[in-house]
Amino acid sequence: MLLDYPTEKLQPSFAAVFAQGLTDPARATPVDVVGPRGKAAIKRYNVYRNNVTVSLINALAATYPAVQRITGVEFFRAMARFHVRATPPTSPLLFEYGRDFPAFIEGYEHAQDMPWLADTARIERAWLDAYHAADVPPLSPDVLAAVPSDRLGGLVFTAHPAACIVRSAYPAVAIFAMNRVEGRITPLRSSTAEDALITRPDMEVAVRLLPPGGAAFLKSLIDGGTLGAAAATAFTETPSFDLPASIAGMIEAGVFTTIHLGDWP
Amino acid sequence: MNAISRTGDVRPDRRLRFPALPVAAEAGTSFKHEHLSAILAESPQGGFFEVHAENYMGAGGPLHQALERIRRDHPVSLHGVCMSIGGPQPLDRAHLARFRALVERYEPALVSEHLAWSTHATTYFNDLLPLPYTQATLAQVCEHIDEVQDAIGRRILIENPSTYVAFVSSTMSETDFIRAIACRTGCGLLLDVNNVFVSATNHGYAALDYLSDFPLAEVGEIHLAGHTEQSDDEGERLLIDSHDEPVADAVWKLYEMAISRCGPIPTLIEWDSKIPAWPILRAEAAAAQAILDRFASARAVGGGHAA
User: Fold this and answer.
1) What does the radius of gyration of chain B's CA atoms come to, in whole angstroms?
2) Contacts of A86 in chain B (CB under 8 A)
3) Alpha-carbon distance A61 to A53, whole Å?
4) By percentage, how much of chain B surpasses pLDDT 90?
C-alpha cells in the first residue's frame, strides 16, 4: 500500500497540488496547470475554485432554507463561504454536509444579534436527517393498548430512525415554521423557549412544538429509559407535565417503533 | 485486466424485482424529484431516466420511494458522480459498498462514472476535477476501474470529462488515455458530446478530430447537455459545463455525427441546474429520440455497418 501510494512528503501527487488552492483563494495557480499553447490558466483554474465553493454554498442553502430566508441571501452566502473554507465536506454524500453549520452559526461574529438562528438551523438539520432516515413503520397504538397497566412503568421504547428532539431557549419552532415556507412573515412577539419534535412516520417529515416537559420525557425514552423513569424526569422538570397527552402525542407523531416489557413494577 | 467479459454480466441468475426493460436506441432524461408527479400523470412513454447515485445513498425516504416508482415503468441509468476514480488515492471502500448496494437494489440498465477525481485526503470537493494523462495515472485509473467492476460484478461506462485546464506533465492525449482504459479494463465508455464540444473549445482543437479519434465501438451511452460561456485570461471563449441550458445547436450537430458513426446508442439529456418544467426536458429527449429513430431505420433499411 505505502509503495503504491507514496506519502506526500516524498512527492506530492498531482491531486495534492491541485487541491491546495481550491478552497484557499490566496494560493497561486498550480505550476503544472496551463491553458492550451502556453496560455495562462488563472481564470481557468478559478473555474474549479468557483465550482467547489459555490456548489458547497448551494448545498448549505438547500439544507438551511429557513436560515437563508431569515438572514437574506447575501448574508447567508457570506456566512456559508466562511464555513465551506473552514470546514469542507469529508463525505461525498452532500446531504451529510453541514452538520457543524449550526455550531458555526452560534459562534459567527455577525450573527450574534440572532441568538435563535443556530437552533433554527438545528431543526432544519434534523428535518433533512428525518427525510433520509430508514423507512420503518411506527409503533401501532394497539400494541401499547395491549400492555397490562401494571407493566406500563417498565416499558422501554425503540426510537424511530427519523425521530429527533431539538431543545431551544428561544421560540425556534415558530421561527422555523414561519421561515421554512414562502409566505407572509408576521412579527414574532414571543420569547418563549420552544422544543421541537421531528419525525417522519411515513413519507412526510413533521415538526411539532412539544408541550412543557415533553422534551425531557421523550429524550429520556429515546435514550432507553423506562416509561416510569421518563415520566419522573418530566415531572421533576415540569410539575404540570401532562403524561397521558404526551403518550398519545408520541404515538400519533411516530416517535417509536417497538416496545419491550422491562422489569420495573 | 479482470475477469469481466465485454458483453456479459457475471451475476448469477435470480428473480428480478423490477422488469428488465430495454434501453437500446432509447432517449432519456435526468430524473428530477420535482418532475415525478408530472411524469406519473402521463402514460408511460418509453425512454429511460438517469439518477446521480449519491442522491440515493440515504437509508430511506421519499427519494427512494420515487425512484422505485419510476423504475417500475422505465429503465434506469445509475450515474456515479464522486467515486474519484481519477484520483491517486485508494477508492473509498464504504462508498463503493453503497454504490454496489444501489446497483443491486435498482437493477439499472446502465451504470457509469467519470474520468475525474473529487476527493483528496479527507476532503470532498464536490466537483469533477481533472487529471494529467500519464502512464502512472493510467495505471491508477485502471486499477480503480477494475476494483469498481469487481465490486458491482458488471461492466461500467466511463465518461470523458469537460476540462478547463491542461497539465504540463501530460504525456498522452485524452483519447489515447481513454482508449487504453477501455482496452485494459474492459470497461465501456459514456461519450458526453457536450463535454467534447466544451473541451475542444477550451483547448483549441476540433471537436470532430476528437470524435474521429474516440473509440466509438466501446460507447454504451451518450450524454447531451447545455453549457454556458465565460472568457479565459486572454479574453477568449471559455465554455462551462453547467447543465443548466438546452443542448446547443453545435452539440446537436456533433451528436448526429456521432450517431451516424456508432449507431443509435442510448442518449441522455442532462439538466441539473435551473431545472425547467417537465415538458421542456421531455421535448429535448424527444429531439434526441427523433435522431436515434432516423438512424435506427436508416441502418435497418441500408443494413448499416456494425459499430
Assistant:
1) 19
2) none
3) 12
4) 87
Q: Are B74 and B21 in contact (CB under 8 A)?
A: yes
Contact across the interface for A44 and B238, Cβ inside 8 Å: yes
d(CA B224, CA B280): 15
Which amino acid is present at B278?
Answer: W
Tell me if B126 and A56 make a contact (CB, 8 A cut-off).
yes
Instruction: Catalogue the E-assigned strands of chain B.
Output: 27-30, 48-52, 76-79, 110-114, 117-120, 123-129, 157-159, 166-167, 188-192, 219-225, 228-231, 237-240, 267-270
Q: How far is residue A99's CA from residue B22's CA, in Å, rounded to a whole number?
A: 41
As given in the structure block, the three cell numbers for residue B105 are 437494489
Relative to beta strand B166-167, strand B117-120 is: unpaired
Residue B12 burial (CB count, 10 A): 6
Cell 404515538 locates to: A251
pLDDT averaged per 10 residues in sequence order, chain A, 265 residues: 49 94 94 91 96 97 97 98 97 96 98 97 98 97 94 96 98 96 77 95 97 98 97 97 97 97 60
- Read off the amino acid at residue A222: I
φ, ψ of residue A243 in degrees (nearest 5): -65, -50
Cβ A241 vs Cβ A166: under 8 Å: no
Residues pairing with A215 in the sheet: none
Q: How close A234 gets to chain B, by Cα (Å)?
A: 32
Which of B114, B124, B241 is the best substitution to test chain A (most A C-beta atoms within 10 A)? B124
CB A159 within 8 A of CB A255: yes
User: What residues in chain B have per-residue pLDDT under 70?
Assistant: 1-16, 301-307
Task: Tell me the C-alpha distance between B248 and B194, whole Å.
Answer: 8
Residue carrying the nine cell digits 429509559? A225
Q: Is A14 on the interface with B (CB under 8 A)?
A: yes
User: Of all helices (H) and strands (E), which one includes residue B39?
Assistant: helix B36-41
Counting beta carbons within 10 angstroms of the beta carbon of residue B253, is it exposed (0 to 12), middle (13 to 18) or buried (19 or more)? middle
Asked if A16 reaches chain B (Cβ–Cβ under 8 Å), the answer is yes
Cβ contacts below 8 Å, chain A against chain B, sum to 150
Q: Which of A50, A131, A132, A135 to mutate to test the interface with B (most CBs of B within 10 A)?
A: A132
Q: Tell me if B126 and A91 make a contact (CB, 8 A cut-off).
A: no
Give dist(CA B166, CA A34) in Å, integer. Answer: 5
CB contact B37 to A (< 8 Å)? no
In B77-134, where does DSSP find H-type helix? 93-106
The confidence score (pLDDT) of residue A10 equals: 61
Q: What is the pTM (predicted TM-score) of this model? A: 0.92
Interface predicted TM-score (ipTM) of this complex, two decimals: 0.92
pLDDT tens string A177-200: 999 987 777 777 778 999 999 999
